[in-house]
Design a protein that fits this description.
By secondary structure, the protein is an alpha/beta fold. The protein contains ten helices and twelve strands. It has an eight-stranded mixed beta sheet, sandwiched between helices. A two-stranded antiparallel ribbon has the order 5-6. The chain has a two-stranded parallel sheet with strand order 9-11. InterPro entries: NAD(P)-bd_dom_sf.
Length: 280
């Protein structure tokens, strides 16, 4: 198998890509800096033997994304089996505006670039990759209502800018995947302006057939519990398909990666077309 990974320099994307490589999957990374793995003892063996292909570019640059697609198709022998999109921004603080993103539409703009440059050879339903996209729990009005009370100040004070971008990104996915969407959650037009559905090259409504959205609870840098508890036959985290989890506080980035590689991809048919909330 071959995977095209965007956002794989760190966090969920990195941990998932490393798991895929260790399983024998080859990976094409789109990276703003290809030196990011220079001192990475785990990643370097895969870079040296060509299993990990590092493409320099910015997901906000349409031409860079198009070239990365072409490289991924070539490395995959004409196919790309998995697209893993884990790009995310970090909020900074402004005295006048509170917590803001330097690029308010980072995720949405990058995803539009990825989807609008899918090569023609991968657009038919039978040749489309499996798209795994990470967003967040709490970005829709219904999901936000289930957030534990003690986390509400964080979600309401620090995360709104990031969640506005992720909500717009999900709106694009729902359209292209032909999935249901609540009219209560129409996106911010400053991020996703009117007419976005006509973006050149963007898949038409319902054209994407193989999509799963991952909505983790509050992310931590904790260790992976999945490898330990899976051996004992116990679930290391809770999952909810197309719904919300009660008392969903947190989950480590490594366990999100564990779910993607160890649970989601091997059992794709059971998850396809859904949004999955993850939490301990």
């Amino acid at each position: 198998m071959h995977a095209f990974v965007l956002g794989g320099s760190k966090n969920i994307g990195y941990h998932a890509a490393l798991r895929l490589l260790k399983q024998g999957t080859t990976v094409t990374f789109l990276l703003r800096s290809t030196s990011v793995f220079d001192n990475d003892e785990q990643m370097q063996p895969f870079v040296r033997d060509g299993k990990a292909q590092l493409m320099r570019g910015d997901a906000l640059n349409l031409d860079d994304v198009r070239r990365a697609w072409e490289a991924a198709v070539e490395a995959g022998g004409g196919t790309v089996d998995i697209v893993l999109f884990t790009i995310g921004g970090q909020a900074g603080f402004s005295m006048s505006r509170g917590f803001v993103l330097n690029i308010p539409d980072l995720c949405t703009h990058a995803l539009l670039n990825v989807l609008s440059t899918i090569p023609d050879s991968l657009r038919a339903p039978e040749t489309q990759p499996h798209f795994v996209i990470t967003t967040s729990m709490g970005i829709t009005s219904e999901s936000h209502a289930t957030i534990p009370l003690a986390l509400k100040p964080l979600y309401n004070g620090v995360l709104p800018a990031m969640h506005a971008d992720k909500l717009c990104m999900e709106r694009v996915l729902v359209f292209c995947g032909g999935l249901p969407w609540s009219s209560k959650d129409e996106p911010n037009k400053d991020i996703l302006p009117d007419g976005w559905q006509s973006t050149q090259g963007l898949p038409s409504q319902g054209e994407l057939k193989h999509v799963v959205v991952i909505r983790p609870a509050l992310l931590t840098d904790g260790k992976c519990r999945g490898d330990e508890t899976r051996k004992a036959g116990k679930a290391p985290y809770r999952t909810k398909k197309d719904g919300d989890l009660s008392s969903a506080w947190r989950i480590s980035r490594q366990d999100v990666a564990h779910f993607i590689v160890q649970e989601l991809l091997p059992n794709w048919s059971g998850w396809e077309g859904s949004g999955v909330v993850l939490a301990y």
